[in-house]
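Pinned message: reference record for Colicin import membrane protein
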Amino acid sequence: MASKMDPVAMINKEIAALEDKLEKLRERLMSDADKALEKAKTQAEKAKDKLKSEQTRLKDLQQKAKAKMDARIKTQLDKAHSAVEMAKDLEVDARAVIIMAKDQLNDLKEDYKRAKALAKAAQTAAKDFEKTNKKPAAKKTPAKKAPAKKAPAKKAAPKKAAAKKAPAKKAPAKKAPAKKSPAA
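Predicted structure (C-alpha cells):
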C-alpha cells in the first residue's frame, strides 16, 4: 500500500527532477544567450573599430589626395604665373625695342636729310667752283692727259686719281653728321 502512495511521491520526484532539468536547461540557455550576447557585442565592437579605422584611413587618403592635388594645382598655378610674368617681360622688352627702333629710325632720317642737304650743298659748291675756275680747270685737264698718253702704266694712274676725287667730295658730307652728333 505504501507503494501505491508512492506514485504521488514518484510524481513529485519526477516533477522535482523535471524542474531541476528545466532549471539546468534554463541556466544553460541563459548561459548560451549571455555568450551569444557577449559574442555579438564583441563582433559589434570589432565592426565599430574597423569602421572607425576605415573612416580614418579614408580621411587620410582624402587628405593625401587633396594635398597631392593641391601641390599639383599649386605647381601648375606657379608655372602659369611664371609664364604670364615672362610674357609681360617680353612685351615690355618688345615695346622698348620698338621705341628704340623708332628713335633710331628718326635719327637715321635726320642724318639722311642732313647728308642729302650737305651733298646738295657740295654739288652746288662744286658747280660754283667750276663756273668760277672754268679756264684753269680746262688747262689742267690737257696737262694731265698728256703724261697719261706717254706710258700705258700711267693711264691707270689717272683712273685712280679720278676715283680719289670722288671720295674727297663725299668726305665733307660724312664729317658734317659727325659734328652734329656731339651737339645732339
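Pinned by admin. Summary line: Residues 53 and 59 are 10 Å apart (CA to CA).
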